[in-house]
Amino acid sequence: MTVMRNDVVKALAKMHLHSNEEGLIPEYEVLVNLLPVSLLNAFAENLLAAAPERKDEIEAGLVRAAYECGYHTGCGIITSEIFSEVVMPMVTEGAKDILRGAYAAFTAWGWAKSGIVQLKEAQRMTVRAFDYYEADSQGEGLRAYMLRGLNQAFFDLAYADPYPDGMDTFVCRQVKGIEAGDDYGEFVVTPK
Amino acid sequence: MALNLDFTFDDQNYRHFLNGHMVVMHSHHYLALVTKLAEDLDDIGGPQILADTVEKSMFAIFEDYFQNNNITSPEAKEDVCTEYFSVFGLGKLSVNRSDEGGEATLRCSHIDEGWLKKWGEHSKPINHFTRGYVAATFAAIFNRSPGSFSVAEEAGMVTGESRGVFVAKAA
User: Fold this and answer.
1) pLDDT band at A41 (very low <50, low <70, confident <90, very high)
2) Structural domain of B77
3) pTM as predicted
4) Taking burial as the number of CB atoms within 10 A of a residue's CB, which of A101, A171, B138, B157 is the most buried?
5) Domain count across chain B
6) Is A128 exposed, middle or buried (0-12, 13-18, 19+ CB in 10 A)?
7) In this complex, do A43 and B7 lie within 8 Å of one another by their Cβ atoms?
8) Residue B109 belongs to a domain with what CATH number?
9) How many angstroms separate the CA atoms of B168 and B165, rounded?
């Protein structure tokens, strides 16, 4: 058996996060927040509008924020109790299956309706996303900074040196985007 | 009061909603780095851009909740704003109102704790996100529009203080 994506998505999508008496949500070895996507998109739009000449620097900062979030939280997710219960029993192909399970979680938790379409283990991965919140953002060009960071993070977790030593082994490029008029977003992860 | 929380899931597009507003989960690493990015862009007003963005976004969510739940009194509005803060996982916020503004106190803070976990103490307060949240809160309580209050973070947990203190004054 390999990872049954739909089963994983259904099981994980039902989860709701609730804050503790301190107003914090400690889960997956991190502090989690639950924020309106309109705020996250607007922040990127407003920064870029304020300094279009520094687009590269701003985009790199947004991708980095997503990457570090994805790398640390992703590790917490794939070692969590819920992942062990729902995904691990289906894992028969090692890192490849864990990555498939991670992308089911990726979808279930609302980061993107996405999946792996091509995978050359430890070398290259292509991911397509058919719905993601950054596609709702206003601006020009490809703008899925969050997904770039998360895709890179997940591939680092699967194929780079074990956590926490595998950071920045791979890099993710966005080659298509719904926000730029394409039918889907496409992301290619390769060695840095 | 207890905030009414309606969590829904769109199983066609896999989007999550809280009281009709799409929400997504991220971690303290994300907000700490977003805060750092704003700080690094200080020369173009990065910290204020972050605060203003938060203020406008949160104000819209507060107003929507007030309308849908028939909330009119300043006391009830204050409860909504401070309870939402915890629902978002941002920590524990309380408000003391005066005639033309007031003070907000942060007892637990996702952003300050996140910053401290990543980089340790800092020479000055950095919680621009909560500065914007407090501005939205005061605007909502006093029936004003966003931009009506200027908020200063006068004490921040990243500088070693036990609490964050935000002072709001009519702009």
Assistant:
1) very high
2) 27-170
3) 0.95
4) B138
5) 1
6) middle
7) no
8) 3.30.1380.20
9) 10
